[in-house]
Structure prediction request, 244 residues.
Amino acid sequence: MVDQKPDNIYASPLDRVADFAFDDAVARVFPDMIQRSVPGYTTIIPMIGLITERYAKPNTQCYDLGCSLGASTLAMRHGLKKAQCTLIAIDNSEAMIKRCEHYIELDNGVAPVELRCCDMREVAIENASVVTLNFTLQFIRQGDRPAMLKNIANGLHSGGALILSEKVYFEPTEEQQTLEALHYDFKRANGYSDLEISQKRSALEQVLIPETIEEHKQRLLDSGFSSVTVWYQCFNFVSFLAIK
Prediction:
């Protein structure tokens, strides 16, 4: 059984707050961390399954890029009850992939799942009908994002779908400050202290680089997608549906 623990990584004062990394310590607490940190996460995951069911085509491949512990992978798998598809889940964290394997083994889904521990930027997307980037692109260097999205668009069949969930920021500043404050209120309501919020913010500052909704939409269109829709938003967290 994979051990799961409550997220208390930033509960005590740290002499130095290191950059956030998806290491073994994070992997052990990740389910608790993401549910308490990302508003709407428990809504987005099952909807990924519904979107997959609608857009998956027989005899194609579906990809979950940045699969972490496999929540979106399993949602996609459950959406593939009828389509004859192979599901490829990729993450560059060995700690995440190791635990993801456990959850895949426990699942009763029928679609075959191939797990890969590698850099998703180096994976050629091929014969795809659905691709998911669930809070993943924000951790990729901004300069690498256009090429990555073009690779996805090039590998999708016409009518294929990309589900892209991201933390975003807003302009003007007043809107950003309001939504950011509500996000911190959400974290406090879920039991995080001001110390934990502050130290986690410092850890992510140089690692998670958010962009505006408009920047995301334009880049997706420039990458070869024909339409982009914001299908979900809660505070400064959104999910896009981009159709090839």
